Amino acid sequence: MVLFNKSANHQIRGFALATIAWILCSTSMGLPECRIWYLEEPMVSSPSTAFIGMWRACICHHVDNSSHQRVCHHYTYHDALVPLDIRLAQHLLLVANIIGLVGTVCAVFALQQLYTEKLQKNHDCNPFLLSAVLNAVASTFIFLAVMCNYSSVPRKEGVGFLPALQMPLFPYAQRAGSAMGVASVSAILFLLSAIIFISYSPSMEKEKLPLV
What we know:
It is built from four helices and seven strands, in the order E-H-E-E-E-E-H-H-E-H-E. By secondary structure, the chain is an alpha+beta fold. 48% of the residues lie in helices and 15% in strands. A five-stranded antiparallel β-sheet has the order 5-4-3-2-6. Strands 1-7 form a two-stranded antiparallel sheet. It has one domain (3-198): Butyryl-CoA Dehydrogenase, subunit A, domain 3, CATH 1.20.140.150. Helix 3 packs antiparallel against helix 4 (178-198). A hairpin with a 3-residue loop joins strand 3 and strand 4.
């Protein structure tokens, strides 16, 4: 019967953190609330708000006190309205998402080796090292994407919306949205997972407890 120990349970926690981090990273890419614009003058008939995301921008027109209408425009690689900081954040999050997925898959194979006692005879080899490095790189890329977004907020970076959306080039005020909070949590979880994986030592597998 397969034998387990407390060290292996720590690696399961690292795998769980990496999986949650990857899900949050993917979620942050789809949310439109990376930057939230507040407009000084009403567009159409009432004050409006714009949500600037990684892959789409949504314009919110308030119809009355209880309802609003949202119109979204999805970006393409040929869109001239997408500024450089969003372009950079797009690619950073996309690469981080791919690297994080590969790192999570590597952790699965390492756990399989650990639980089936197929580790290499070299006791100095850490099977989770590759996953730790990939998760750390993914965390770094996500942090860079978040910093790109936050640095554009105080500068009030503008976006050249399509004329049909009837939006100004620059907002009256803007702030970072919830998508960046989700991305930040993802980066922290990736980093914690990397720390757990890299702290694994095969020598800790000498004392094992049998499952009943």
